[in-house]
């Protein structure tokens, strides 16, 4: 009733103050006519932001507690941009942590190798023993980015957080870690049996590169249930935790086949839970954390993402609001270029040219592509397009309210895996 009364009062005020609505209201402004007014040139030169867009970015970053980079994966250019964001955060109140689209085990491995002169060599050795056990941080530019952000963080106790599930080839590595927790004899016997199965599955998958042959996807439910009973009997808390990471990742992969919406929702919940766990361990209850997150762009929307899910980005936005803090969501995409793509288990990446305005999921980007600054990257301040009664399609409506800034790079080039 109160809401109804407020609405009636508002309508009466509008009628009395502004008179009748014109019979022929003015035409809504278009997105195309508005984009140039919110566009600025941006470049990264010697690791520094330059151009008229630099000050917009730096001001926005300085005012944010959580900076979220929604990206296209495995590129050379976007880690350069992320490194400049780390510099900006480090020079304005510091950086507590950086979160990657990788598993907690993967980021712990990188964290432990930060001080090593053979940081890249350690990752190469891990990938040789357990191919495709790490997502993204087995890319040279991503691994270097983690080290760079740690070096410029300007806060003691800087951490690298992994919020995602285990990668598809990680089962052997997980089982090795489970044995290292020194479980009791029943759990140990069960883990050794799983290890034998994992080796056979790995050999089978390596013949064709088919990831569906890998242990994490191929092991029968009955074997998982039998091992679960044994691990519950005399496994340590650390044993059970690692086993849960294996089984939860397995469920996410299996559901992706026939129930993709359930899989995406489950994965999003896992990332949110892992974020909260890391935040608490870092002492977030007593001291405000300042975190940079770098994930695929669909994960970091405020509101509903293109998969019609409330993903990590929405959670962080709400989490920040609850703290009276600020989140800044930056979408970083390329207009065209070459994608580096997964080509199968223990296989080199394959390369595929792309143009975003020809991609079914990104055709909406064409007006921004057509409006790019010449000879530079382009920063679009999406915040200035909100509540302007623009004539928008559903994709642009989602982007303008889901992200604060859009950085459009004219051409993306692929990064390389660590070997």
Give a summary of the structure in a few sentences:
This protein is an alpha/beta fold and 419 residues long. It has helices spanning 2-18, 31-35, 52-62, 77-91, 104-113, 119-129, 140-152, 171-180, 185-208, 215-218, 221-234, 237-258, 260-281, 312-322, 366-370, 394-402, and strands at residues 39-45, 48-50, 66-71, 97-100, 159-162, 291-296, 327-341, 350-355, 377-381, 405-412.
For this structure, the quaternary state is single chain
Low-confidence stretches: none
Roughly how many Å apart are the termini?
A: 66 Å
Q: Over the alpha carbons, how many angstroms does the gyration radius reach?
A: 24 Å
User: Would you count the extended β strands for me?
Assistant: 10
Percent strand: 15-25%
> Which range best describes the helical content: under 10%, 10-25%, 25-40%, 40-55%, 55-70% or over 70%?
40-55%
| Helix and strand sequence | HHEEHEHEHHHEHHHHHHEHEEHEHE
Q: Main sheet, how many strands, which sense, barrel?
A: 10 strands, mixed
Instruction: Label the structural class.
Output: alpha/beta
What general outline do the C-alpha atoms trace? Answer: globular
| Total DSSP helices | 16
Name the average pLDDT: 93
